[in-house]
Amino acid sequence: MSRRKKIRPEIRTDTWLATFADTMTLLLTFFVVLYSFSTVDATKFKQVASSFQSVLTGETTKSSLNFNVKDGDVPLVGLPLQSGAAGSDTQSIYKKVQSFIKDKELGSIVEIKTDNRGVIIQLRENIIFESGNAEIIDKSKSVLNSINALISTFPNDIVIEGHTDNEPISNSKYKNNWQLSSDRALQVLEYFVVTKGQARPNRFKSIACGEYQPIAANNSDANRALNRRVNILIVANDKEVITK
Question: Name one Pfam family in it (predicted).
Fold first, then answer.
């Protein structure tokens, strides 16, 4: 009788992949958690603990590790964001500003806008300054006083932005539009903080934008006049100001 050949079991060489994949997943989770702890507070810590407990007990949840992919913010740990929550503060600020401007009959002087940082109160150059100058004119102070009273009602950060058109400037005081826009923004800031004594001056900052953030094409006198402006930004509490 012929001998039966022994069938050797197939030797697999890829079994290590499962262990490697598990290790990489654990390392990734570990570093994500470390990153989230870099900006953690007491509430976030509790949410992290709750999320890990859910994972370890096998519960399925969307709150384990959520990333704000749209805005590129740090990981949001714990409960998922409620739809529309991020814009609620901006909306409430806008309504309050709009009502104030209407009550004070400033609609012909002040324009209200919003962007991804908060609510902007926009003033044309000729309301506050003479051409090529950063000294606040007397007739504008009543308007600034009203705006000062308005921003006093908000605890939010305030950013003053100076903007110019693209016409070159070079006089005894200013070499370029950067300097002019910087001085104008600073003059308005100092009027609020120093002259009018705004509380918590640490929430105020000024930014020089020069000619590089126009709202109209610089191809006519009318359009250039639109670009010469000072913006008073009330930052929404859920936003961070990024200088452009």
Answer: OmpA
> pLDDT tens, 233-243?
999 975 555 44
Are 151 and 110 within 8 A, CB to CB?
no
pTM: 0.62
Domains of the chain by residue range: 16-81, 86-235
Structure tokens, 147? 């705006």
The span from the CA of 34 to the CA of 41, in Å, is 13
CATH class of 86-235: alpha beta
Strands (E), 98-228: 110-115, 118-124, 158-163, 204-210
Segments in 104-238 forming alpha helices (H): 125-128, 141-151, 177-190, 221-227
